[in-house]
Structures are given as structure tokens and as C-alpha cells.
Write a structure and sequence with these properties.
Radius of gyration: 16 Å
Oligomer: single chain
Strand content: under 5%
Number of helices: 5
Membrane topology: Multi-pass membrane protein
Number of domains: 1
GO cellular component, one term: plasma membrane
Pfam family, one: CRCB
GO biological process, one term: cellular detoxification of fluoride
Order of helices and strands: HHHHH
Keywords: Cell membrane, Ion channel, Ion transport, Membrane, Metal-binding, Sodium, Transmembrane, Transmembrane helix, Transport
Number of strands: 0
Length: 125
């Protein structure tokens, strides 16, 4: 496995996440829309790619997309830190909402991505 392929894909994933965070996270005290969007989009892409595209791609390209791009695009650590900060700021209901939306939304997004991939396969037949 060529590490530079994963690293390059990771750079693009990280820059994409940063761009969404700049667009949607308005500053301290606001809801972390950018992180939530990145994680939901990443979950949907992961579900879709893993079913529709990646099985046909070479292993190096699959790893670059899954580990490199999507791994750098999504972020569990930032989600965790933002949640802790909300709790420290005594915004418990907002923190609980963020946790619930992130977990359930992530599962739903993966399911939607997988379902879209299955529909794509059925139409191709």
C-alpha cells in the first residue's frame, strides 16, 4: 500500500471538513453545524461507496477513499470535544441533542447511502 495515496486523499478530506466548518460553525457558543454536516455526509458516502463503487475499485483506491478522504473528512474527536464544551458551558440539553442527532443521524445516513447504492445496482440490472 502506498502511504502517499492515503495521505493525499486525507489532505483533501481534511481540507473539505475545514471548509465546511468555516462555512457553518459561526464561532464559540454556536451549534457545531459544520462538524455535524461532515459526519452525516461522511456516513452517507461511506454507506454508498462501500456498496456501489468500492467493491469494483483496486484495494489501494478503496483504502484511499475510506481511510484517507472519509476518515479525514469525518471527525469523532471534534464531535467529542464540542460535546464536552457544551456540557462545561452548562448547555446540557443542546449537548444531548447533538449526541442523539449525531449517533442516530449517522446510522440513518449510512443506511440511506447503502439503500441508494442498492437502488443504483437494481437499475443497472
Amino acid at each position: 500500500m502506498k502511504s502517499w495515496i492515503i495521505g493525499t486523499a486525507g489532505v483533501f478530506g481534511a481540507l473539505s471538513r475545514y471548509g465546511l466548518s468555516v462555512l457553518w460553525n459561526e464561532g464559540t457558543g454556536s451549534f457545531p453545524w459544520g462538524t455535524l454536516a461532515c459526519n452525516m455526509i461522511g456516513c452517507m458516502l461511506l454507506g454508498y461507496f462501500s456498496e456501489a463503487l468500492l467493491p469494483k475499485w483496486p484495494q489501494e483506491l478503496r483504502t484511499a477513499v475510506m481511510t484517507g478522504f472519509i476518515g479525514a473528512f469525518t471527525t469523532f474527536s471534534t464531535f467529542s470535544m464540542e460535546t464536552v464544551r457544551m456540557l462545561q458551558d452548562h448547555r446540557v440539553p443542546l449537548a444531548l441533542l447533538y449526541i442523539g442527532v449525531s449517533l442516530l443521524g449517522g446510522l440513518l445516513a449510512v443506511s440511506l447511502g447503502t439503500a441508494a447504492a442498492h437502488r443504483r445496482k437494481e437499475k443497472a440490472i
